[in-house]
Structures are given as C-alpha cells and as structure tokens.
Design goal:
Blueprint: H1 13-22, E1 28-32, H2 35-42, E2 64-65, H3 73-82, E3 88-91, E4 95-100, H4 103-126, H5 134-155
Parallel strand pairs: 2-3
Antiparallel strand pairs: 1-4, 3-4
Helix pairs in contact: 1-3, 2-4
C-alpha cells in the first residue's frame, strides 16, 4: 500500500506521524516558524475569535499547545490535542502547524493563520480586541462548511 503523503526528514517527525495517525482524513502537515505566529506562541497565546476568519481553522479559536521540548513525544501529544477539531494550532515558544487534505490546502491555511496572527498582534498593540461570541462563530463555521461544499461543487 502506498501513501500520497509527503515525507520530510525532520527532528519533528514524531508530531507529523502522530497527526497523520490521529487524523486519517488529512493528507498534509505544514510546520513553520513564521514571524507573527511564532511571536504569539512565545507569549503562549492562541488566536481567539477577534475576527470571523479564525473559523477558517475549523473552530472558534486557534489554540496554542503547551510547551514541550522539540522532537519529544510530549510535544507531539500537546499538538495532537490542540488540533482536536481544528486544522491549525500554535505551539508555545515554537511556531505553527496547519493540516489539510492536500499540501496546497495546508499551505494556504498557513498563510491565512500567519495573517490572522499579524492582525491579532496589531490589535494587542492597542489593547484587547472585541471578540465575537460563540453564537457568531458557530454561524460563521456553519457558513464556511457550506462555502467549502459549494467551492468543491464549482470545481467539478
């Protein structure tokens, strides 16, 4: 049996493997140390519902996994938990991970999360942003599901 999943040599092989095991529906994992997401991760802050586009990552927020040394099973466990019902997470004092059905899906999400991280940090420079409430985020998440199905239908 062959797999279409990309394999990359990395000290972080463990969380790549464990994400694929926990999320068999995904086909790609992107891990980066981008400037803004990493800055937030060093503050041990996830990205709350300050903007409706946070829902692009699959939920009401983008979690920040607790810190653990890179390459460890402890970090892998934290990442898998932070990705539960999500497609992206930050890793405390480390960086960001996104997942997708394909490499382009995961990479596109990585770009979106980095933009959200920059916007959120800009808000924090002025004060605490007003957050959308749970009902507002549930509505957006629902609309994103419909949008994704529509986009897939149009592509066929």
């Amino acid at each position: 049996m062959t797999s279409s999943r990309a394999v990359t040599a990395s000290s972080e092989w463990r969380f790549h493997r464990d994400i694929y095991r926990a999320r068999p529906e995904i086909g790609a994992v992107v891990h980066v140390h981008s400037t803004y997401a990493t800055s937030l991760s060093c503050m041990r802050r996830g990205i709350p519902a300050f903007h409706y586009m946070v829902a692009i990552a699959g939920g009401e927020d983008i979690r920040c996994a607790p810190y653990a040394t890179y390459g460890t099973s402890e970090l892998s466990s934290h990442v898998v938990a932070a990705l539960h019902e999500r497609r992206a997470c930050l890793m405390a004092n480390h960086g960001m991970i996104t997942i997708g059905e394909s490499m382009s899906d995961a990479l596109d999400l990585c770009v979106e999360v980095e933009a959200l991280a920059e916007q959120y940090l800009n808000c924090l420079a002025v004060g605490e942003p007003v957050l959308l409430n749970r009902a507002q985020m549930v509505e957006v998440i629902s609309k994103f599901g419909s949008y994704r199905r529509l986009k897939e239908d149009v592509a066929r």
